[in-house]
Amino acid sequence: MIDVLMERLKGLKSFQRGIHPPHRKKYSESAPIELFTPTADLLIPMSQHIGPPCQLAIKPRDEVTYGQKIADNEHPISAPIHATLAGKTGMTAITLLPGPGGRRCDAIPLKPAEENALPEGFLAEFLDRNWGTVEPTSYEPDEIVQKIRTGGLVGMGGATFPTYFKLKRNPERPVDTVVLNGAECEPYLTADHRLMLECPEAIVCGLQLAMHAAGAQRAIIAIEENKPDAIEAMKKAAAGKPGVEVQVCATKYPMGGERQLIPAVLGRAVPSAPAGLPLDVGVVVVNVSTAHGIARAVVKDQPFTHRVVTVTGLGVQKPGNFLTPIGTKFSDLIENAAGGVTAEAVKVLAGGPMMGPTVPNLGVPVIKGVGGITVMIDTETAHWQEGACIRCGRCIDNCPLYLSPTKIAHSIKHRDYDLANEFDMLACCECGCCSFMCPAQIPLAQYIRAGKNQWRIIQAQRKAAAGS
Amino acid sequence: MSDATNAAKPTPLPVKDAGPREFLVSSPPHLASGATTRRIMFEVVVALLPLLAAAIYFYRLPALILTVLCVAGALLAEVIGNAMRGCSQSSLGDGSAIVTGMILAFSLPAAMATGVTWYMAFLGGLVAVGLGKAVFGGIGNNLFNPAMVGRAFLMICFPAVMAAWVPTVPMKAELKEAGVDAVTTATPLYQAAKVSEYVSKANADPAKSEEFMAKANEVREQMPGLWRLAYGNVGGCLGETSALLALICGLWLVIRGVADWRQPLALLIVVVVFALLSHWISPERFQGPLYHLTSGALMFGAFFIATDYIGAPVNPWGRLVFGAGVGLLVMLIRVFGTYPEGFMFAILIMNALTPIIERLTTPTPFGGHVAAK
Question: Could you say which DSSP state residue A12 is in?
């Protein structure tokens, strides 16, 4: 209550409820983006977006050039995958994905070429700041959307929803505002922060292109107040751009969730998931890394092959922000860029500590949705010992979606999924505020995640039973 | 021995050579706020300590003995309950039994701990946690506030002892100076009830009107002033003494985020409104809001009993309804009931209504309920 008052007094944009986890961004926030050149073979998974996996468009054991399309799918919810380095592909294998649930999918190994695996001066081009001459309105909206699709862009905040699909104009549901998500509310991660500092012009250009494609008149750049240098840089880059404004948000988790960010900056409530989308209130949310990718894909015809990955946590020797080719194995990146894993490391997360799923070993590849690798030691992780719910209401008081996590979790615990659904289980965004706050250390978010999966299975069974 | 401990230590895994290193797999989030049940209970105990100090100041040793006996009984019941349920005794460490014992002690008269009636306090603690909590399955599963269950038990079994109010030690000194050697005293709420009774009798029977009015005035003259009430130098339970201190400690709990602000706020507002109305209707018969706020268990109960997590709804609106309901029932019992104070009954009745309140106040998600497919 008091912090909400403070936010108001400071004039910060915020949403109701939410939590204040420790930031722990200092490990990597001052490390400039470095280009990482893999030393081992890459492993490029066929499923790097929400939607059906891609099919291989090349033959296995084939020479590929940098940026060549190697896999695609005709389904509208999909994005092509490109060779992230020049080299030779191997036979398809199966890999574990660095995502929730330990999903596995097909992947193609890629042995980088000895020489010129990457075009000359790639880092300089990636961080190029001369975007002043680009006129976003000189592109046709359809052309922008097509180029985004060709470039293989997906939401880089972690949701990996194909970007082109969000920006495609739909006369029935017009978009009036594009929100650029620079909140980076997840503790530890600094990839977006560094990108906003080091090449804000490209991000603003990408944002303008997204506005133009979606037909929006207004764009809001939302940044948490704990990144004053990024706010400064983005304000400078956005100066004089029609319809683009920078808004400073409170430092609060999960500010970067679209269902929190939209009410914070626009005061609009997005209808509940799974049916409700930001599009229902005329908004599209684009992550800063995605906006950067849009600018490169549209203006320079560069495909999505690299992304900035923060490697951080007390479990790595040298935290930093690395421009990493998609498909780089965690082991390669951590060993050769971040100085390796310390002996005390106990957990490796694909992402930050609030929503990042763990990986069992370092053999998994970096995919499009991985913005960070957090290696945690024993003392910096929470140790859960589930007790009885004391009905303190902290989960409810801090749920940014106004749900009743304890009710949902206990319904699931007793395998009453219909009751869980009555308590709006499916609206949960799995941000983990409830688990974070719970004094009985009940892994509420985990229960709810499991319940949602079970619900899908039950629905399918019921459908099958009704059909037979 | 030393070999065994060495063997139990996990050997550090080899980092680079020999196969892929395995890491822990767990579901996010991987951070926690650090709040634990134990810490919450500890904070409540800390907030109760100034009140205990005040009780000891007013009643000296009996207050301490009473508290110790109640806590001991509560802890014993916890041990027995855990043993009977076949679970570990780790719940002793969470401090909830201590809180229950303390709250129970604060709702008992100090005289109980003097003389042969001391075992009642112990029995109360035993019943509070035993019948109030352990039989339901321990912490988190009870329907009723355990301390109030214990108090209800004592009230039914030992009504005379539960209504034996001794003057506080400072009061005794004052009375002695005035030349009175008082053994018992009336609580402010008892006096208020008496005034109300006499006034209503006077109104009902015009023939004896003056006689009753004189009696009412006699009681009214003995009633303590507001400052005295707030300061707490009045007869009553341990927790019924200093309303001001209860308010300060309670606000501290609210600021610390341990107690919810909703129950006390709703409760106090309802009490004030009710008292204003009744006082406005019949100022002779009914006391004003300040008298109600500072007397009896109101302040203590509003912040320490009504904010009990387990018997109250978890929903934000539910908690407001719960607090308002407690406030309303307290005032109904005080103003119209035969008991001078009704906090215990109010809490137990609202505990019973909690499931239905909770059902009716299920929050609507921020984006509306999930659309049916």
Answer: -
